[in-house]
Amino acid sequence: AGLEGRDSLVVMPTGGGKSLCYQVPPLLAGRTDIVVSPLISLMKDQVDGLRANGYPAAALHSALDPQERAEAERFIASGDCRLVFVSPERLVTSWFLETVEHLGIRTFAVDEAHCISHWGHDFRPEYRQLAILKERIPEASIHAYTATATQRVREDICKQLALADPAVLIGNFDRPNLIYRLIPRLDLRGQVREIVARHANQAVIVYCISRKDTESLAQHLRENGSRAAYYHAGLEAETRHRTQDEFANEQIDVIVATVAFGMGIDRSNVRCVIHAAMPKSVEHYQQETGRAGRDGLEAECVLLHSPADSLRWRTLLERSAAEGDGNSALEGALALLDEMRRYCAPGACRHRSLTEHFGQHYEPPNDNDCGACDVCLGETEGLVEATREAQMILSCVARVGQSYGLGHVADVLRGADTERIRSLGHETLSTYGLMSDRTQKELMNLTFQLLDQRLLERSSGEYPVLRLNDASLEVLRDERTVHLVPAKTRRVRTTAREAASWEGVDMELFESLRQLRTELASERGVPPYLIFSDASLRDMAHRKPATPEQFLDVHGVGEKKLADLGEAFLACIAEADDPAGNGSSEPGPFPLSEGKRA
Ligand code: ZN
């Protein structure tokens, strides 16, 4: 479609290769194409990355100084530039449209095209102006890129951009190198600490719902020795940029952030993405977890969820609708939330659920087993019959007169000795201490599950209290069975892929190469991943190339990288192999290491 000038709608996940789809056609056709992109920081990174690989690209945006701008304009006018990145608001200026017409530019890629639809998960009003493209340049071919699953949003994109008979192309949504885990949230800080510890000195992103949560959790991780920082839209632009840069330059390992973090981040060696709570749509979840393992190496995605999350989102969404987003947006948002809630329900393989959500068939690598999710790894326990426990909780709600909140009911059930219980005389109730083998957090989790299944109600207002409904009475009368996810902490297993991926890699050499990468990056003022990805470094530490020809065989190395970086990295490998500096390329006195290399 890109070469034939046919409009297209390309549905592809983050990291799925959509940039290749718009990079290759102009290169083959020897023409200049436009990419409309929502974020300046993202454009800058993409252009830097392309140039480092010898690809002629430029960006026009408000952050350029006059000289950079004049240089970019000259380059574009020369006709040698293959891709020009612009923001939607710059594209529709009359100056830019005239330039486009003058240069005969006819092909436009619209990145993050779902931003044009208010049914989507990230509406941006400035995208609406793109409707002007087909009016001004009727022969233009437009290629809209999105990762959204909703049919309504896909239709809206085609309509708003006036796409003519577009080729609808759906990419591969499965990311086999990602390991998905959904774990009941019982002790947020402890669980996050434990997961971060599994990825010591590696890049981790933790997503939280609120700004306040990001600050307190980052603080907690710092106190426990992690190089952590927080990030949200309420910070000064300068602070945000500094934090992004420090993360990109590997000076920070853990970023605790709201959804505001990520679009401008291209660090490819993020080894873990943690969701401290359930996100509000599967699209958000897919996009945010998609930031892990972009180098193709294994990475872990952990969703710490509680049934309380969907109640919290519902309140937030209803509030923002009341404040002006309107009810049509609320309806869409609640539908997206409900899909996310279903994804979190226990049961099927996570790779399968995610892939099928985006309208694709999932083919597991083994028989009915992805080998890379908590379900297939046998870590989950699934639903168990828990009618008896539900009855204990519900009868405690009745015993306290349906007048108290979650925390107090849990306190009574576990038989806590608190001032409040004594002053109310609740230690004399028949349900006092009835579930003393459970912790407060486990009891809260089980009660939230009952609320989520509508087997119990909670009043609204500042001090919500628990109340029984008709379904609660059926449970209490033994007319209804209840299934709950056991609220217990879990053990995680090592996947076959994780074990295989480090096989044959000289760890010491990998660390030396990583250090060299950091030094070169800081000398050049670019992020380390622009020098080489982790996948390239691991491959180097595995193959140990000794000549430029062998260096070309390394993952991610082309002529340009060889000329630019080959000498430094080959020297580092030779040095590690021959620390005494004997300079001997003959088989050394240690045939064992030769054997390992083969
Ligand atoms: Zn699975």
Low-confidence stretches: 584-598
Q: Helices and strands: which structural class?
A: alpha/beta
Q: What is the total tally of β strands?
A: 17
Question: Average pLDDT across residues?
Answer: 88
Query: Per DSSP, what share of the residues sits in E-state strands of 2 or more residues?
Result: 5-15%
> What small-molecule ligands were found?
zinc ion
Distance between the termini: 44 Å
> Number of DSSP helices?
26
What Rg, in angstroms, do the CA atoms define? 27 Å
Question: Reading side by side through the largest sheet, how are the strands ordered?
Answer: 3-4-2-5-6-1-7
- The coarse overall form would be globular
**What percent of residues adopt helix (DSSP H or I)?**
40-55%
Largest sheet data: 7 strands, parallel
Distinctive features:
598 residues, alpha/beta, 7-stranded parallel beta sheet, 26 helices
Can you describe this structure?
With 598 residues, the chain is α/β, with parallel strands linked by helices. Helices cover 45% and strands 12% of the residues. The chain has 26 helices and 17 strands. Helix 12 packs antiparallel against helix 13 (327-344) and helix 15 (387-399) packs across helix 16. 39% of the residues are buried. Residues 349-351, 370, 373, 375-376 line the site of zinc ion (ZN).
